[in-house]
Amino acid sequence: MALPLEGLVVADLTQNVAGPFCTQILGDMGADVIKIERPDRGDDARAWAPPYWGDESAFFLAMNRNKRSLALDVKTEAGLEVLRRLVARADVFVQSLRAGVVAELGLDFAAASRLNPRLVYCSVTAYGTRGPLRDLPGYDPMMQAYAGLMSVNGHPGQEPARVGTSIVDMGTGMWAALGIVAALRQRDATGRAVDVSTALFETTLMWVSYQAMGYLGSGEVPTPQGSGTAMIAPYQAFPTADGHVMIAAPSDAMFARLAEGLGVPDLARDARFMDNPSRVHHRVALVEALSALTRDKKARELVEGLRSRGVPCSPILTIDAVLEEPQTRESGMLLSAPHARLPDYTSIGLPIQWNGRRPEVRRGPPRLGEHSEDVLTWLGYTRDDVRSLRARGVIA
C-alpha cells in the first residue's frame, strides 16, 4: 500500500506526548521518522510506568511506533553536527524544546531554514510564541486547568476533574500533524521553508470553544454537567439495574422515539418536553422521569431496545470490554505486527483509511538508539566515524 507521506524524512526532536503523537501520525502516513533521544535515558516517557508491557513503558509504546531511534547527545559539538546534517536532509523538523533552548542550539527557524531552504519546521510549545507565559513549561493537566477545561468537567459540587486521557497533548499533536501536512503542500508550491507552530494552551482553548461562545453570548459561566452537556437534553448517562447507559436524543424526533422505546409516548407531547429548549429548561424533571423508567432495566436490554428504534445510546464500557467488542475487532483499529520483544504486540491504529485500507505498523516502537548506526551511515558517516562517536558517548 502506497502511503501519502512515503519518501519524506521527519527529524523528530520531541518527547513526552504531544510531539511524539504528532510524529507517530506522520510515521503512520508513511514518513521515515527519525526520533532523536538522549543517549542516557531517552524520551522521558520511557520511564512513565507502570504499567509495563514486558520491560517497556506501555505509555511510550503507544506514542512511538513507525519510527527509528537515534540516541544522540546534542549538547556536544559532534552531536550537534549530526543533528544539523539530519535537519539539512529532512523534509520536516519537529521540535518541542523549552523556549530559548532551540535558539541556543542554533536551530531556530531562521537558522534551520538556512541549512535547508525547503524545510517544514514545526514547533510544539506550551503557551504559544506570544504572551506573558510564552517562556513557561507546561503539561496537559496545567492546560486543562488554566484554559477552563477542568471547570466544565466532572460533577457539580465535586473537586475539579481532569479528562482521563492526555486529550490536550494528543490534540496538540493532531494539530501539529495537520499543520505540517498543509505546510508540505505550501512548500511544494513555493519551494520555500514554512514555519508551523502550535501550543497546548491554544488546543485547550479550542476544546472549550462552544462553552466560550455560550458565555460570550449569554454572560453565564459554564459549569460541570457530569455525563451531560448544558445545551441538550436528554444527553447523559441514566441509571439501570446493573450500571448506566448513555442516551443522546438531541432532536425532537429522536426524543419521540426514546419516549416510545420507554413505553411512554405521551412524554414527547408534554409541554415541558416538546422541544430541546423546553427540555433543557425542565432538565431536572426530565431526568427524574426518564431515570424512573430506566433504572429497573438491564443495560443490555435497554440498549438493544432503544437502538432498534434508532435512538443513539451506549453501554458505558471499561477498556477491557471495549477491546473485546465485535465493533472494535471488525473496525481494523487493532493492529498486530511482528515485534522482536513482544510476541503479542498490538496497538491502536490511525483512525484514517485510504482507499479502504488503514496504514499498518511498519516498525514497532524502537529501543533507545536502536537505529543510531543506520541513521549515521545514511547521513554519510563512515563506520569508523560511528565507532568514534560511540566511544566518545555522542551516540548510543
Short structural description:
With 396 residues, this protein is α/β, with parallel strands linked by helices. The protein has 17 helices and 13 strands. It has two domains: 260 residues, Rossmann fold; 82 residues, 2-Layer Sandwich (formyl-coa transferase, domain 3), CATH 3.30.1540.10.
What would your notes on this structure say?
- By secondary structure, the protein is of the alpha/beta class.
- The chain folds into two domains: 9-206 and 330-391, Rossmann fold (3-Layer(aba) Sandwich); 235-316, formyl-coa transferase, domain 3 (2-Layer Sandwich), CATH 3.30.1540.10.
- The chain has helices spanning 18-28, 58-63, 77-89, 101-104, 109-115, 140-146, 167-190, 200-207, 209-218, 252-261, 276-281, 283-294, 299-307, 319-324, 326-331, 372-378, 383-391, and strands spanning 9-13, 32-37, 52-53, 56-57, 67-71, 92-95, 120-125, 194-199, 235-240, 243-248, 313-315, 334-336, 346-348.
- Strands 5-2-1-6-7-8 form a six-stranded parallel beta sheet, with helices on both faces. Strands 9-10-11 form a three-stranded antiparallel beta sheet.
- Strand 9 and strand 10 (243-248) form a beta hairpin.
- Helix 1 (18-28) crosses helix 7.
- It starts with 8 loop residues before the first strand and ends in a 5-residue tail after the last helix.
- The mean pLDDT is 96.
